[in-house]
Specification:
alpha/beta; Rossmann fold; 2 domains; 8-stranded mixed sheet; 16% strand; AB_hydrolase_fold; aminopeptidase; hydrolase
Length: 315
């Protein structure tokens, strides 16, 4: 692990549609470029990633996707429109950022939602990607969203009942993410706050493997709960704005790009099968299965160590 150095450059990139994307660059200005695609969607950049990259060697780019972190207009403001916030918009934003920074090719790293966005970007711009590292692999297929919003009820029946009861009865057998998104866009503040609470209780349990206590997590902040819930339901409810199986149908575009896929066998929110199937269709990727890991990266755990090793591999 390396020290968290401060960024030597940062700014707000105008990507159109009235959107300003916040970015930071740290490390060696002449180093090998790498870029973190954060998860969520909606979580914003996490400076913790700097600890995995030797600042004397790497030129590390962190950025916050539309509306989250320091990017504006903020999704946490219920008056902010989500019309221009889709996967294709985020792909285009990343490409504009690469061009703005004068980077020819960069290593991409990120997990969970970041995985889907990395794969979608690499499919669109394979000639701009040097290597890929993905902990917690997702591909945003319909069955993955179905698992996240219903299938996990097999393991968390108590949490699921509360989660389902958070939406009107007529919406409980349909698209739960869209039903919550409707509540999160209600003109009534109390309705929005309750929906953010109910959604976040479920969301946190899927990430941790059952622990949904907000204390000590980012979900303890009501503004963060709302920002995350509104963004996640917007994407999940609309199938990540991708055609079903889009990632799998286009993995051949990644031929020649070396990759490392890292996945915990105990990842309830993202079962191992997705990572397994991605690896089978992407021969240039190595799959590392961690028997003692779940979805969350924690300092010093096996997922953390595997990420550090993958970064060093592509040094």
């Amino acid at each position: 692990m390396y020290p968290q150095v401060e960024p030597y450059d940062q700014g707000m990139l105008d990507v159109g549609d009235g959107q300003l994307v916040h970015w930071e660059v740290s490390g060696n200005p002449d180093g090998k470029p790498a870029c973190v695609f954060h998860g969520g969607p909606g979580s914003g950049l996490n400076t913790r990633w700097r600890e995995d990259f030797d600042p004397d060697h790497w030129k590390l780019v962190l950025w916050s996707q539309r509306g989250c972190g320091k990017s504006t207009p903020p999704v946490r403001d219920p008056s902010t429109s989500m019309e221009h916030n889709t996967t294709q918009h985020l792909i285009d934003d990343a490409e504009k950022l690469r061009e703005h920074l004068g980077i020819e090719k960069w290593l991409l790293i990120g997990g969970s939602w970041g995985s889907t966005l990395i794969l979608a970007y690499a499919i669109a711009h394979p000639d701009r990607v040097s290597e890929i590292i993905i902990p917690a692999v997702t591909a945003s297929r319909p069955e993955e969203f179905e698992w996240l919003t219903r299938g996990l009820g097999l393991f968390y029946p108590d949490y699921f009942d509360a989660f389902q009861e958070g939406v009107p009865e007529e919406d409980r057998d349909g698209n739960l993410a869209l039903a919550y998104n409707k509540l999160l866009n209600s003109p009534d503040a109390a309705t929005r706050e309750k929906a953010a609470w109910d959604w976040s209780k479920w969301d946190l349990s899927t990430i941790t493997g059952g622990d949904n206590e907000f204390e000590g997590t980012r979900y303890a902040d009501p503004a963060v709960r709302y920002e995350l819930a509104r963004t996640v339901t917007h994407y999940w409810g609309n199938g990540a704005f991708l055609k079903p199986n889009y990632i799998f149908d286009n993995l051949d575009r990644l031929k020649g790009i070396p990759g490392v896929l890292i996945h915990g066998r105990n990842d309830f929110g993202g079962p191992l099968r997705t990572a397994w199937e991605v690896a089978k269709r992407w021969p240039d990727a190595e799959l590392i299965i961690l028997n003692d890991a779940g979805h969350v990266i924690m300092e010093g755990n096996s997922m953390d160590r595997a990420i550090a090793a993958a970064v060093e591999k592509f040094r």
